[in-house]
Amino acid sequence: MSVRVVARIRPLLKAEAEKDQILSIHEANNGKPQIVKIPNPKSQHEEYSFNFAAAYDATCTQQELFDTEVAPTIKHLFQGFDVTLFAYGVTGSGKTHTMRGGKSLADRGMIPRLLSNIYRKSKALEKASNGETSINVSMSYYEIYTDKVFDLFEPPEKRTPTGLPIREAEGGKTVVAGLSEVPCSSLKEFEILYDKANANRSVGSTKLNAESSRSHAILCVKVTISTATETRASTICAIDLAGSEDNRRTGNVKERMVESASINKSLFVLAQCVEAISKKQSRIPYRESKMTRILSLGQNNGLTVMILNLPPTKAFHLDTLSSLNFANRTKKVEVREIENEPIFRGPPRPPTAATTNGGMARQPLRPLNSAAANANILANREAKVDKEKPAKLFSVYADKSKTTATGTARSIPQISSPLKRSAVDTLPSSRPAKQSRPATSNTSLLRRGPPETTTITKATLDSLVEKKVAEILAAREANVAAPQPVVQEQHATEREKAISAEVQARLDSIEKRLEGQEGERAEGLSYLFMAKQHQARGEDEDALKMYELAQPFFPDNQKLERKVEKLRAKLSARRPPGRKSEDEEAEGMVETDAETQPIRRRKKSRRQEVQNTDQSYQVDDQEASYQVDHREDAGYSDHESPRPRKKASKHTTKSRSRTAVRADSPDPLVDRDDQEAEHSSTAMATPRTQYLIDILNLRNVSKLKALNGLGVKKAEAIVQHLQEEEDLQLTSWHDVLNLDVRGIGKRSWEVMREGVLA
Ligand SMILES: Nc1ncnc2c1ncn2[C@@H]1O[C@H](COP(=O)(O)OP(=O)(O)OP(=O)(O)O)[C@@H](O)[C@H]1O
């Protein structure tokens, strides 16, 4: 099934005038309001039509939106399906209002209403089953701020600068390691917890929104239903994305610009992912931003609902058009509806450290041997007895149940992830997903049991660490999960069980180093992405600022230095720059830099096409989509909101392949014609190059074989060559090209590199 996309137009704000409204909602052929119309910014008498699953105008209340869009998903949640609910839109369009809402009963957003509903349904089910069914609710809440993940249940002062690492888990899911998961058994508890966590969220003031979210916030609510025979857990994730921003209008200062660059970059990558999915491309660039890795749109299982928030006025004209185009593509993204499997109970066995630890957000349940399942159930029971159940108080919502005392967020027991290895690690957990954790935590960094007392030699330690690093690199290379716990549980050997705290500490430090480097580089790359976007729109001053911000991250990059010099010269030669007209912005093509010329040519010819099809703005879904996509190609792909560059169908082969390389490259520094930047021995390796280097340094035939265009013989020849040069450690692309392996030339290395993330 596809992502359900619904549009919501927010009401006019005080400072906005009625005459400036540009959006209207219309009925589709089925008589339901589903169509959003917006004028062509260049020709007001023309309109574009976008057809969604539903469209809500400014009169839509929070209750109405919840009843029609969110409440139906709760049924699926209780049936064992995961659900993703996310709000998308430009800054100030109403995302936070929709998801979190205000304090009054009527203003409450989707999230508090969702929780209210979950608790109400849980109580009804428990009651109807005469106590045979028990339902536990727990949650994690985190933000992605400047491409780093922070636990919102932790106070900001406890944050580490690099944030929490994210990892691939089973089934391609992405999980955040070290995240708190907090049991929360009543609406009142939730309110306290949620308010406190929201106070930790990064919010700032811009000219477009006094309380602008500077981060993407992700709340994951896990509902675990246990009966006498089985336990099943499913998760609903409610995501309030930060909005894209036009920094000429936000009035952002340097700090805000940094946040903005990161927000825009992640949304840009999201748009690229959606485009790649809708075009059924083999490579979806999820990995280029943490938000897209976590959201994994199109990779996640379960229902996905996107609420497209739209500001009604023409001040946001181009942004709104961009959002509508994005949403139009998103509705074509297919998601798999896969039920989380229950865990059946079997003969009991005592709980082990691993079965009472482990567990991460959105971890799917997997069938297990009954012993493992039972161990956890036993642990759950014990946990229940031990745990002081927080008192409940319902007063605000329509929930029927009544309780008396209130708890505070502090009093809520907080189960920290096993990855943190805190004191609570030894506590039994109520999380059934942990049943699927291995009894031994030896072969994956995702699992960490309490320190074993067994002593092992330094050589063993080194070999274990090496093995672990090799696994991480292999998992990255193949873009798949690390070896799976269930299998490991069955095949664990005694020696592996002896992994000690010392090994874990060393692994931690290696991981931290890797994550830290990636984080810094990602930040630098986000400036480059922004710079490129600005430059493509002819916003040279902003582009220069972004390039300058990127410079410290790429200190020896001559290509970047040349760009900065060139832009400075261009700007100083220019008269004082005036603001461009909206028409020019829509064209987005005032740039004279050779780099953007292919796009300018493309747009011109496409604009021509639009002229020929202008008369047919159809309401019909298919046609509307076609028209929109078609027109979007005609010149709306480069306005404020980040958009991927489009491939042209009417170009020479040369220009097409050039564009394709750009779209495909994760690194703006390595456009095909710019590769000298990487060929320099001092340049930083791009992610793909780095992966290739890592694999080569491992000297592992099977990992090399997995790369594109490389047969066994060549892989063996490379490894043999590297083994002969025992001390050789490759550090750059230049080193790779200098390898003198028979039959492997520059082109072969390039093909291998391209195959790394494909
Ligand atoms: N449906 C609505 N009804 C009433 N007011 C709304 C509605 N939607 C948005 N608003 C108001 O519009 C303003 C901007 O909304 P909000 O902060 O939710 O935007 P946002 O999209 O989350 O922005 P950002 O991305 O900058 O965080 C707020 O003052 C909010 O109260």
List the defining traits of the structure above:
758 residues; alpha+beta; Kinesin; ten-stranded mixed sheet; three-stranded antiparallel sheet; globular; binds adenosine-5'-triphosphate; Kinesin motor domain-containing protein; nucleotide-binding; microtubule motor activity; motor protein; ATP binding
CATH homologous superfamily of the largest domain? Kinesin motor domain
Unreliable sequence segments: 347-456, 479-499, 577-683
Distance between the termini: 25 Å
Bound molecules: adenosine-5'-triphosphate
Number of domains: 4
Provide the structure class. alpha+beta
Total count of helical runs of at least 4 residues: 26
Give the second-level CATH assignment, the architecture of the largest domain: 3-Layer(aba) Sandwich
What does the radius of gyration come to? 27 Å
Beta-strand share of residues:
5-15%
Helix content: 40-55%
Biggest sheet descriptor: 10 strands, mixed
CATH topology of the largest domain: Kinesin
Mean pLDDT: 66
Query: What's the total count of β strands?
Result: 17
**Morphology:** globular
Just give the CATH class of the largest domain.
Answer: Alpha Beta
Biased composition (Basic and acidic residues): 628-643
Family: Belongs to the TRAFAC class myosin-kinesin ATPase superfamily. Kinesin family.
Subcellular location: Cytoplasm
Biased composition (Basic residues): 569-578, 644-659
